Predict the 3D structure of the following.
Amino acid sequence: MRTLFIEDREEINEVIRACKTCFVGMSLNDAPYVLPMNFALEGDTIILHSAQEGRMWETMKQNPQVCINWTLGEELAWQDVRVGCSYRVKSKSAVVEGSIEFIDDYDEKYRLLGKIMGQYSDREFKFGKPAVVNVGLMKVHINKITGKIFGAKAVTPWNQNKE
């Protein structure tokens, strides 16, 4: 079984949109830190939200470079049931490397909260002024994006036309 790169950006976007959680990696003073977060994808940016305090907020303020991962799928596959090294989890993943922009403008924060909720629901939402003022909103500007398929069946001359 092989790992294949996803070359089509829209296919990478589909992996991202199919996930409910992303894992955001950051680092400060050589201390790595990863958190699961809710998100939205908008063009070449990822939208994140959090409290405007705490370890994550302070880390991102001091080092705005982040790496985000989405993984979709957990099916176990193997080439030979008796050989441990032949086991794989069939999945797709997307990874973004980017830089954080903190959003302070009230109207933009309101709009971005709607985008985040749109990741999880088709409903339209309203947000009270205190909720908008007190939430921390960030755009991650994508510097690099990659996608991979794990556990893909290897194509050989004798199986290339078989499912």
Remarks:
- Helices lie at 9-18, 55-62, 106-120, 129-134.
- The two ends are 14 Å apart (CA to CA).
- The CA atoms of residues 9 and 147 lie 8 Å apart.
